[in-house]
Hints:
Rossmann fold; homodimer; alpha/beta; 224 residues; seven-stranded mixed sheet
Amino acid sequence: MMASCLNEPGKTWAFWRRLVSSAEVTDGKKLRLGVLASGKGSNLRALAEACASGEIAAEIGLVLCDLEDAGALDVARGAGLPHRFIAPGRFRTKLDDEAESAYIAALREAGVDLILLTGFMRILKGEFLRAFENRVVNIHPSLLPSFPGLEAWKQALDHGVKVTGCTIHFVDQGIDTGRILAQRAVEVLDDDTASSLYARIQEAEHALYPSTVARIARGEISFG
Amino acid sequence: MMASCLNEPGKTWAFWRRLVSSAEVTDGKKLRLGVLASGKGSNLRALAEACASGEIAAEIGLVLCDLEDAGALDVARGAGLPHRFIAPGRFRTKLDDEAESAYIAALREAGVDLILLTGFMRILKGEFLRAFENRVVNIHPSLLPSFPGLEAWKQALDHGVKVTGCTIHFVDQGIDTGRILAQRAVEVLDDDTASSLYARIQEAEHALYPSTVARIARGEISFG
């Protein structure tokens, strides 16, 4: 029976891989998510609500913040999600080695399958990415490959584009260069300021991130 | 009266410049367009129809092609537009000096105010751009600054983006780097091939090019 299924016309290897991946995820236990955040936690809130409503067939196993007063910690508290502040160490734009090890240990201990970056303002290095290979997802506020790096909405406005947006992608060693999973376009208006444009991009993010993680949880996008 | 108008709150310099620019264009004679094409002429057809229907308050004064059998020449004939083939000379990707001079002379003789490139497959050099400074407009099949250069839809597909589109921009000395006037997003579908994606981008082009030239003709976008 299985053999005849495998020969079914039109069923690609990607189809079967998705099926197996989906079975792995749904068989036994729910997909467990780790969320890393530095900011006010609006994407975390959107993800937590989508998990609670069942839109995403997954649960958030741990929220980690590198800032003790990050709004994301309040969001996690409010939603009853496990959460921790772990000090990032002595650098400004990355975790130091000790901190990185502490982040990896906490996420492993929480048994997370997939790590979602939601405005996490530190570059993750080789050790972290090797620990969770092809299991780290980021959201970036532009239509990559345009405007990688910081304050992408300002870069877009300064460049004079009329359409920008947001991108969900796997994290690799480059800056915002990993495989793209989903994108959504946002129009730039003639009277946009950096903050009005960023606000509309964030609205798009709050829809795109949950719908994309839901597709991952259904096995429609493979990872790991 | 004029002085009090100039002080009216909310009226920016851009507003007054548009008003003056619009008056310059509409006072006396219609905006005259020169169209350069190498291909089948589908953007030319869309522009010609929009001029005929009055959507664009302008007239096409001359269509120039660098290929004797370009479909664009048939489109021009069918629409009763002045048209000429001018041999591009001995290079493959640009006009030679003699040809460039012939193109400039023909466009000047036709009295065109604005030059529209519609899939014109040759780079225009300094002499041409100085002759028509800030008066040369191009349409490019991607959301610039992503994927400048040739076969942008293939570049987009190979990169794995989920959103691409088309861009209308002024032509400067760089490759697809001039000021952006308008953009439209086009979704990349999971089962897209290069040709299915390009077909949808071209549909978007056929709407965006006329609507943008209409805005130029109304003085909403300044040029020259």
